[in-house]
Design brief:
Blueprint: H1 4-10, H2 15-21, E1 32-34, E2 39-41, E3 60-62, E4 70-71, E5 84-86, E6 94-95, E7 108-110, E8 132-134, E9 142-143, E10 156-158, E11 166-167, E12 180-182, E13 190-191, E14 204-206, E15 214-215, E16 228-230, H3 241-245, E17 252-255, E18 261-262, H4 265-276, E19 280-282, E20 290-292, H5 307-351
Parallel strand pairs: 2-3, 3-5, 4-6, 5-7, 7-8, 8-10, 9-11, 10-12, 12-14, 13-15, 14-16, 16-17, 17-19, 18-20
Antiparallel strand pairs: 1-2
Helix pairs in contact: 4-5
């Protein structure tokens, strides 16, 4: 449910205000305004800034496909009723402080396919009704703990296809109602404990095509509603069964292919255990291919059944037998040397 603040805002009597401006509403010369549906269409008009004269009272403003390079602090002052703001496919590299603070009813914000390298600390301040935020296909390198505050109604957050290497452990701490989170196509190395500590409602977590080589033991433990976990295309060589056993969900589908798996008995045992846990399902198990050791390279893990553990057991047995034979040989040799010395000593005594 929405926060009390958002509910109060959404209960403001809008109809009298909207009827007061309909009929004679102005419209920027470069845009199309549809009074019957309160839409302002400024798509692909070659605009370099938010045009002045956008009518108040509309609920959708589409500025996608233009040439905006920045969003200034007062760009949307007075446009209090907008619920959907589309700013995708521009060249935006700067969001000035409080540039969105007047959009108190905003539910969906699309900033995808821009050139943002960082997020302002107050990006979502005052956006208490925001439910969907798209920041995919930008140039972000880091997500800090203050950029996404005051977004406790956010349901969908897309940060995919950026250059994100690090995320503050508290970056998502205010997003307790988040259901969809995509970080795929970035440069993350580790899935850290504590990062998802408030995401009990998260249903989809996409982490594919990063550089993740480690999943810390408690990283997935808080996720009680997860139905899909994408980990394909990372740098995983081994995984810990305990990390996935912590997922106390009803049914979770895992995507694990396209990793440089080190196929040994331990890995086979882990996947065997995962597949015997009722609520865990490895969707692409048939596509999991060994990267190493060389004799298993390019072979599907599923085709080996228990061969890896059998081979490892055989290797251990051969080594054990070899060691035992070496020890027995050494004992026999020592006993032979002792007897030879004893015989030599006896012969010497007889000569005397």
């Amino acid at each position: 449910m929405f926060s009390s603040r958002c509910v109060m805002l959404c209960l403001v009597p809008l109809l009298p205000l909207l009827s007061a401006v309909s009929g004679s509403r102005p419209c920027p010369g470069s845009c199309l305004c549809y009074e019957s549906s309160d839409l302002v269409d400024c798509r692909s008009r070659g605009l370099h800034q938010v045009p002045p004269g956008v009518p108040h009272g509309g609920w959708l403003l589409d500025l996608s496909g233009n040439k905006l390079k920045e969003v200034r602090t007062r760009s949307f002052v007075g446009l209090w009723s907008i619920k959907i703001l589309l700013l995708s496919n521009n060249s935006i590299h700067v969001l000035h402080p409080q540039c969105l603070s007047s959009l108190q009813f905003l539910e969906r914000l699309d900033l995808s396919f821009n050139r943002l390298r960082r997020l302002p600390q107050d990006l979502t301040r005052s956006l208490s009704c925001l439910q969907e935020l798209r920041l995919d296909h930008n140039l972000l390198q880091h997500v800090d703990s203050s950029s996404l505050g005051d977004s406790d109604n956010l349901r969908k957050l897309d940060l995919s296809h950026n250059r994100i290497r690090t995320v503050d452990v508290r970056a998502f701490s205010g997003l307790s109602r988040l259901r969809f989170l995509s970080l795929q196509g970035n440069r993350l190395n580790v899935l850290r404990e504590g990062l998802l500590s408030r995401q009990q409602s998260l249903e989809v977590l996409l982490l594919g095509h990063n550089n993740i080589s480690e999943i810390q033991t408690e990283a997935l433990a808080p996720l009680r509603s997860l139905t899909l976990l994408g980990l394909q295309g990372n740098q995983l060589e081994h995984i810990k069964f305990k990390s996935f056993l912590k997922l106390q969900t009803t049914s979770t589908h895992l995507q694990m292919s396209l990793n440089p798996w080190m196929c040994d008995c331990d890995l086979q045992r882990v996947f065997g255990k995962i597949q015997h846990v009722r609520h865990l399902h490895v969707e692409d198990y048939q596509d999991i291919v060994c990267h190493a050791p060389p004799q298993q390279a390019d072979s599907p893990l599923s085709s080996m059944d228990s061969q890896l553990c059998m081979a490892e057991t055989a290797s251990v047995l051969v080594i054990t037998i070899t060691v035992m034979l070496a020890v027995v040989g050494a004992l026999v040799k020592a006993e032979r040397n002792r007897k030879n010395k004893q015989a030599a000593s006896d012969a010497e005594a007889q000569e005397k």
